């Protein structure tokens, strides 16, 4: 059960309207790494969790908090649009560079949503559930969560640098701080799971069934060998099961692929010898069917 409390988790009060910035702020609402994405990702991970109850409870704690962040940002966007009819976009984007890049305010904020936030990113691409990951493997999911919080915090910090509005910055400072906590939270949970399950996902697959001769070999597939200086190319592997090896000149290990001609109904291109025979009228129809 969810219960809505009327007060926001934290203040979302801009000092003055700014329809162009409202357009930018849509990215951390409905973008790939926005609050809607982490909200849905965490909630579905929690609802689908079949393991330790402490993980389920933790995931749902943070997923529910993200609902509050969606509400805060939506509220901020609506207030940034206060008193900003569509005609104001020319004034807001008076700078030619800004006008060229942003084109002023998002006209759909006035036409479609009535000066309110929309479930989409800063260029109008609608939010999609394909942004979310809920695989049922907690270690894999928590690593995806860490990436989401890392990208999300990066974007909020960039947005912080794009405004001088004290009210907007105040809200973003709160969100940045929560993203600091959430990154640390997922790192702590990842470390805990790695201690009990191992570092490679999934840990339940027997490594005897993989090609172990290449399990810990870093292959040099680009010009230069600077990458061999990294810890991923020598020394103990992160999972503690082997030592990394460096292959400076990896050779092909597979066959040269030869595909059969497509059947006639595909109307593909015949091999050269068959093209010549068909063009000279030397092939019977049944030969083309073979």
TrEMBL record:
CDD domains per record: Mn_catalase
GO molecular function, one term: metal ion binding
Binding site for Mn(2+) 2: 66
Record's cofactor remark: Binds 2 manganese ions per subunit. Binds 1 Ca(2+) ion per subunit.
InterPro entries to which the protein is assigned, alphabetical: Ferritin-like (IPR012347), Ferritin-like_SF (IPR009078), Mn_catalase (IPR007760), Mn_catalase_C (IPR027407), Mn_catalase_dom (IPR039377)
Domain of life: Bacteria
Entry cofactors: Mn(2+); Ca(2+)
Residues annotated for Mn(2+) 1 binding in this entry: 35, 69, 149, 182
Gene3D superfamilies in alphabetical order: 1.20.1260.10, manganese catalase, domain 2, chain A
Keyword annotations: Calcium, Manganese, Metal-binding
Pfam families: Mn_catalase
Binding-site positions, Ca(2+): 57, 61, 220, 222, 224
Signal peptide: none
Family: Belongs to the manganese catalase family.
Name by which UniProt lists this protein: Manganese catalase family protein
